[in-house]
Amino acid sequence: MNHLPELPAHASVVRLPDGTHVYADPGSLPAAYAGPQVVHQHIHQAPPDRTVQRIALGSGVGAGAVAAGVYFGPLLIAALTAIAANFAFLAFLALVLGWGVHTVVKSIGGSHGEAAVKNMSKAAKLARRRR
Q1: Confidence (pLDDT) at 103
Q2: Choosing a second label site near 45 at 20 to 30 A (CA), which of 7, 21, 63, 114?
Q3: How many distinct helices (H) and strands (E) make up the chain?
Q4: Backbone angles phi, psi at 24, to 5 degrees
């Protein structure tokens, strides 16, 4: 009585590198090595730069740091841009208000206003020289 399973009809004998033989299904054997696979990629097909995420994963920080970099990175840039825009607007507003005050003092003040404008411009020139 034979207790061994029957070999499938499509099984073949494979000689191993050590000289022994085994029965194997040709569909389950790995494909023969055909050399390195060359993938041609042009510059416009390159993946986006993920330097922060690669550093986070390479140092073993994990997916939380990668998600934080992906989410909070652009959020930080947007917040800093908004702050810079606010400062630029405030500087422009101060410039316009200063010009307006200068013009009103010069036109309404008469000789006293003109003298005040001259004194202010002299004081500004002296302050610039002292720096």
Answers
A1: 86
A2: 63
A3: 3, 2
A4: -145, 150
